[in-house]
Write a structure and sequence with these properties.
The structure holds two protein chains of two kinds. Chain A is mainly alpha-helical. Chain A folds into two domains: about 1-90; about 95-435, no CATH class. Chain A has helices at about 10-20, 20-40, 45-65, 70-90, 95-120, 125-140, 145-150, 160-180, 185-205, 230-240, 245-270, 275-285, 285-290, 295-325, 335-345, 350-380, 395-410, 420-430. Chain B is mainly α. Chain B has helices at about 5-15, 20-55, 60-95, 105-125, 135-160, 170-190, 230-250, 250-260, 265-270, 275-300, 310-320, 325-350, 360-375; strands spanning about 200, 210-215, 220-225, 300-305. In chain B, strand 2 (about 210-215) and strand 3 form a beta hairpin. Residues about 1-5 of chain B have low confidence and may be disordered. Chain B has one domain (about 15-45, about 65-375): ABC transporter involved in vitamin B12 uptake, BtuC (Orthogonal Bundle), CATH 1.10.3470. A two-stranded antiparallel ribbon of chain B has the order 1-4. Classes of the chains: A mainly alpha, B mainly alpha. At the A-B interface, helix 9, helix 15 and helix 17 of A face helix 6, helix 9, helix 11 and helix 13 of B.
Chain lengths: ~450, ~400
């Protein structure tokens, strides 16, 4: 989080030295080497490994933010993600699972970012599309098929691959189905309707075990199929790695998610700079003006909704297959809020920001909060006045709620703000106008959001 | 508001005849009553019709339908007044700020938890047993109103006021954050106090259920009963609605609120302190929500930190159903939605022969209504169509 620090002179100098030129290359190379060494020599799950893992993630951020040659960035980043992390994963299954989970949420957050960040439509039921994808594979690949109709049998596990595509299509279809009626509404109505839709999907998943057992109700679906390990022989014989099936599956899902995330990033960034992306932005900034410019409002919004929902649908298929088990509480409102918090923390509309936000929130969920819980328990045993029932892992709502409020008050643009929004900010500072169109003159001083503390380095 | 020096004379100058005041106060209530009776009759006819259609296959259906009908209507009234009192908080804030106060359901929950805490305290000092039930109701409602109203004003001060004038999504996201934080803070407090997560709402003995009348259907008489707590809830809700109507439609303060809702900047030019009106709006809405929470918790018997979320959503649906920003509309929408839900919850499993559980699908019915209303009549039952502000 280099950008959060105040832009002191010394800091600027250090940053400039380390981010370009020979010092930059050697700094990044050295850092990468140290990180690799730290990770590979600390295979046990402990606080030290947590720190090494965090340093590893920071390295990826630094590679992205530095100003070295693009080729060097790609090679170093690729080496870290495609070689170092998987090898570390064979030593310690926990961290590669965290990385896979983070990858899934990066893709989900990128999808939600299309809806919330690009088009400015607040979707509070995003997880519903995720649930649709997950239940699609969960139902089709298990005994549920036979329960629904004795003549049907589950699809073979190899169908996993086409089902990712099918999840994409089904997600998009649901997005359009929900979007058609509600997208004519103003933004805040939309938020409530999507929230209601998310609840409806969850309630349906919970109750569709009668009269026909489709979703197996609140017990959830067990034993969801994973795709067959078609590459097992290649890895074991040609590469000579002696991995058991469990490890191979972890590696498989890690690489699958990594590839999908890369694909998503390409698609989303191409979309963002396309004609459609600019239309979304126009709608976000001012609907009336966008209509006046000839942008078909409902169609453009619908497209944003469908694109976002299709990512969620596809990731749902992968998630179900990776988890082996899904049940309705997996897809409750807090999960939607979770993904929204990722988008807002990173910066609405900013692709690298959203990815950072997704990784940070997943880390908070899976590593920082459990770690905090053990620390608190130790303190409590030592006699500190901490309430016995306070377990940080059980108070996600509190943390994410606070995160949302604080981000909105102090830094609504997020940690890594969107470039184009930043440009608007600079321009406004030059002509000395407030950023927001002060529709309501309430006699209050302008909100403190106009000059986020980290916006100094832009100029 | 206007200079206080003129208040005396101008108040006398504009003093309206009592008849007119009565009309402005009770007019909306008559409208409300018409909607209540109308929707009750319409829904009753619908279920009777449905049972007649299925009569050939299941001969006992009509009797069973008629047997539970009065109870369903009473249940609908209780739910309806619950949604109405919460929806008022949404609609008042929306009217003034054009902002969905997402955390309002949690304000309601805090009222309920406060009531349970008062009950627990009174029981622990031994005062609860001999207490007059009506005095107890008055006490919990008053304390619930104070706590919830103060909380609503505090939330506005901390989380909404700094964001006024920001793009629409910004305060909404902040409100979602407030809602989550309140849920977990209350949970933290409750689980670390004698209340526990699912707190029992202790109260003095309200006496046995009241028998309204008996119906004779077929071979045995069916008593129609209403619990005294439900009766207290309905009465209190009606009183609150009357007082609110008087406050908004017949006082200077109400005029200031309506002026602020209509046009904030012009209102401030007319000498209205807009910030004070906004604070007051949150106070009134929060107090109503708190009173509803205290009464509803009493009626149900237990409270928990998550009890406000779904009623909050449904109350918002009710506010939209009636036309958001419209106070009478919020009451009407709440009651209509309450009836609909009670009918779905009770009759769905009866008509589908137990295949679909009504209680679960009542939620779906509420949200489907929200979506349908927004498609076909976005301005709601009583709302006037609005043009978008540029």
């Amino acid at each position: 989080m280099a950008t959060m620090s105040p832009p002191t002179n010394l800091w600027e100098q250090v940053k400039a030295t380390l981010s370009r030129g020979p010092t930059g290359y050697s700094f990044l190379g050295l850092y990468a080497a140290i990180c690799t060494w730290l990770l590979l020599t600390n295979p046990r799950t402990s606080l030290n490994t947590d720190i090494a893992f965090a340093l590893f993630l920071l390295l990826l951020l630094l590679i992205y933010r530095s100003q070295v040659a693009l080729g060097f960035k790609v090679v170093l980043g690729g080496l870290m993600l495609f070689v170092v992390l998987p090898i570390f994963g064979t030593l310690n299954p926990f961290y590669i699972d965290v990385a896979t989970q983070a990858g899934i949420f990066v893709a989900l957050a990128l999808g939600l970012n299309v809806v919330v960040g690009f088009a400015g439509l607040l979707d509070l039921g995003y997880v519903a599309f995720f649930a649709v994808g997950a239940y699609l594979w969960g139902i089709m690949s298990t005994e549920q098929m036979t329960l629904m109709n004795p003549a049907w049998s589950p699809v073979p596990p190899i169908m996993f691959y086409p089902f990712i595509l099918l999840g994409l299509i089904v997600g998009a279809t649901f997005g359009v189905l929900l979007g058609l009626p509600v997208l004519r509404l103003r933004g805040d109505y939309l938020a409530i309707v999507t929230l209601g839709f998310g609840e409806v999907i969850r309630v349906l998943a919970n109750n569709l075990d009668r009269p026909i057992n489709i979703t197996n109700g609140s017990q959830g679906i067990r034993g969801i199929e994973r795709p067959p390990l078609i590459f097992a022989d290649f890895v074991r014989n040609t590469l000579g790695l002696n991995l058991d099936d469990q490890q191979l599956y972890q590696q498989f899902f890690y690489f699958a998610v990594l590839l999908i995330v890369m694909l998503t990033v390409v698609v989303v960034s191409r979309l963002k700079h396309s004609r459609i992306g600019r239309a979304w932005e126009a709608i976000r900034e001012d609907e009336t003006a966008a209509i006046a410019q000839g942008i078909p409002l409902v169609r453009t919004k619908l497209l944003a909704f469908a694109v976002g929902a299709s990512f969620a649908g596809a990731m749902g298929v992968i998630f179900a297959s990776k988890q082996l088990f899904i049940n309705p509480p997996t897809f409750d409102l807090i999960r939607s809020i979770n993904i929204l918090a990722m988008v807002i923390l990173g910066g609405m509309g900013s692709i690298p920001g959203v990815m950072l936000g997704a990784v940070l929130v997943t880390m908070l969920d899976l590593q920082i909060l459990p770690r905090l819980a053990t620390v608190l328990r130790d303190l409590q045993r030592a006699g500190a006045p901490i309430p016995a029932a306070f377990d940080p892992t059980q108070y996600q709502r509190l943390f994410f709620g606070l995160l949302l409020i604080l981000m909105m008050i102090f830094r609504p643009t997020g940690i890594l703000p969107d470039e184009r929004r930043k440009e608007e900010l600079v321009e406004d500072q030059v002509v000395d106008l407030p950023l927001d169109d002060g529709e309501v003159d309430s006699g209050e001083p302008p909100p403190p959001t106009q000059a986020p503390p980290g916006s100094g380095p832009i100029a | 508001m206007a200079a206080e020096a003129n208040a005396q004379t101008s108040a006398q100058a504009v003093r309206r005849p009592i008849a007119e005041t009565l009309r402005t106060v009770f007019g909306p209530l008559v409208q409300l009553l018409l909607f209540v009776i109308g929707s009750a009759i319409a829904l009753s006819l619908l279920v009777i019709l449905l049972s007649l259609v299925q009569l050939g296959a299941r001969p006992d259906l009509l009797t069973r339908t008629l047997t539970i009908l009065p109870q369903v209507l009473i249940d609908g009234l209780v739910r309806g007044f619950l949604f109405s009192t919460i929806a008022l908080g949404y609609t008042m804030v929306y009217g003034v700020l054009e902002f969905i106060n997402f955390a309002h359901g949690e304000i309601f929950m805090v009222g309920g938890v406060t009531g349970a805490a008062v009950g627990l305290f009174l029981a622990s000092v031994g005062l609860l047993e001999g207490m007059n039930p009506l005095f107890f109701v008055l006490l919990v409602v008053l304390i619930g109103m104070i706590v919830s109203g103060t909380l609503a004003v505090t939330v506005e001060r901390i989380a909404y006021r700094p964001l006024r004038g920001a793009p629409r999504l910004v305060p909404l996201i902040s409100a979602i954050g407030v809602s989550l934080v309140l849920q977990d803070v209350v949970r933290l407090i409750m689980t670390n106090s004698p209340l526990g997560f699912n707190a029992r709402y202790q109260s003095p003995d309200f006496g046995p259920p009241i028998r309204l009348f008996e119906m004779t259907l077929g071979d045995r008489p069916v008593p129609i009963i209403i619990s005294p707590k439900a009766l207290v809830f309905i009465t209190a809700a009606v009183i609150m609605l009357i007082v609110l109507n008087y406050l908004v439609n017949a006082t200077r303060l109400g005029k200031a609120i309506r002026a602020t809702a209509q046009d904030m900047s012009t209102a401030s030019l007319m000498g209205i302190n807009v910030n004070r009106i906004i604070t007051l709006t949150f106070l009134i809405g929060g107090a109503l929500g708190g009173a509803a929470g205290a009464l509803f918790g009493l009626n149900v018997g237990t409270v928990n930190p998550y009890m406000g979320f779904i009623p909050g959503l449904k109350a918002f649906t009710a506010a939209v159903l009636g036309g958001i920003g419209n106070i009478t509309g919020a009451m009407v929408g709440g009651l209509v939605l309450g009836f609909l839900e009670a009918f779905v919850a009770s009759y769905l499993s009866l008509f589908t022969n137990g295949a679909l559980s009504g209680a679960a699908y009542a939620d779906i019915a509420a949200f489907s209504i929200l979506i349908l209303i927004l498609i076909f009549r976005p301005s709601g039952l009583l709302g006037e169509s609005t043009t978008q502000k540029v």
